[in-house]
Design brief:
The protein is of the alpha/beta class. It has helices at 34-49, 68-85, 94-106, 163-176, 191-203, 218-223; strands spanning 2-7, 12-19, 22-29, 58-62, 89-92, 110-118, 121-129, 136-145, 158-161, 180-184.
Length: 231
């Protein structure tokens, strides 16, 4: 299996290439210039692996939520590459990739992923480990909310991660109370985890056509919901 992955939803910019069990990754903190950097990273990875885009099986990408510009970059670059090479795409939640990365690094099986959404809000989702899979199962729904309005997830032993805890840590801790066991302070979503999740979904037959490489903006969905029957 050969999966290219792209993640640009935060200040971190990364690309990864999963070939069988081997993983190559480029990662850097780049508050600006994601579009230029991600294309260069993709070219470097393909060159290192000796692959043409057409030799890939799919392109996975961080579909958001996150910074509007960064999420659009990932979706547009993925769509362009996929159309050009005739490849399917695999959208992956940025929050899920963040949670999976925390589990991979620390072994924590319950992660509350929170990204700063500005305007005094956070994007958040609670994820629990699902067996030995790279991905983690969402508990409830991903939402955008004020830190004081984040409901404590069921049970205990949750570890917070992401820029939401860096920006709104005290408010989130007060709201979550005893459910929060600790915080992983340096966690960022990475393309390596998008690739692992994307590979699982590709094997499960969940790939989509290139035109479905679209961003997910939780705030837009809350503020301007689609009419009934529309997606």
């Amino acid at each position: 299996m050969r999966v290219l992955a792209i993640e640009t939803a935060t200040q971190a910019c990364s690309a990864a290439l999963l070939v069988g069990d081997a993983l190559l990754e480029r990662f850097e903190i780049a508050p600006r210039g994601h579009a230029q950097r991600i294309l260069a990273m993709v070219e470097e990875l393909l060159a290192e692996a000796g692959l043409a885009p057409g030799a890939l099986d799919a392109i996975a990408f961080g579909r958001g939520p996150g910074a509007f510009t960064g999420v659009r970059v990932a979706a547009s670059v993925t769509q362009g590459l996929a159309f050009g090479a005739g490849l399917p795409v695999v959208p992956v939640s940025t929050l899920q990739a963040l949670a999976a990365g925390v589990r991979r690094r620390t072994g924590h099986d319950a992660v509350l992923a929170a990204l700063d959404a500005r305007m005094g809000e956070v994007y958040w989702g609670a994820y629990r480990a699902a067996g030995d899979a790279a991905s983690m199962a969402l508990v409830g729904a991903e939402r955008v909310a004020a830190p004081a309005a984040v409901p404590p997830p069921p049970g205990h032993g949750w570890f917070g991660a992401g820029s939401g805890f860096e920006r709104h840590g005290p408010a989130l801790a007060a709201c979550l109370g005893a459910a929060l066991a600790g915080v992983v302070t340096d966690a960022l979503p990475r393309a390596a985890d998008v690739a692992a999740i994307g590979g699982e979904r590709l094997r499960a037959g969940e790939a989509r056509p290139p035109e479905e490489a679209v961003p997910v903006y939780l705030r837009d969905e809350v503020v301007t919901p689609s009419p009934a029957g529309e997606r």
